[in-house]
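Reopening: Acyl carrier protein still failing for me.
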Amino acid sequence: MSEEQWSAAFREILIRHLPMAEAMVEPDAALAGLGLDSLGTVNLVLELEDSLGVSIPDELLVRETFLSAATLWTAVSGLLMEPGHT
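Support: Ran it again with your exact input. Result attached.
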């Protein structure tokens, strides 16, 4: 997976919430290593939900979802493909 496979909106939101990230985030880079902490995770989830029009269910609010940009995009893109998503 490469960053080109993510939506531009996802990339922009992700970068805003990673204090130590540069303009590009490697898919397998640890989000915690790029400065994502627990408060940052909450803010990231809220912005993803608001900006992308998804609702991240409780079962996805686990450490594994936020390990890397790739794992987070897998979760978010699955929600974007659900029936009824605009």
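The chain has one domain: 3-80. If you still see a failure, please send the error message rather than a screenshot.
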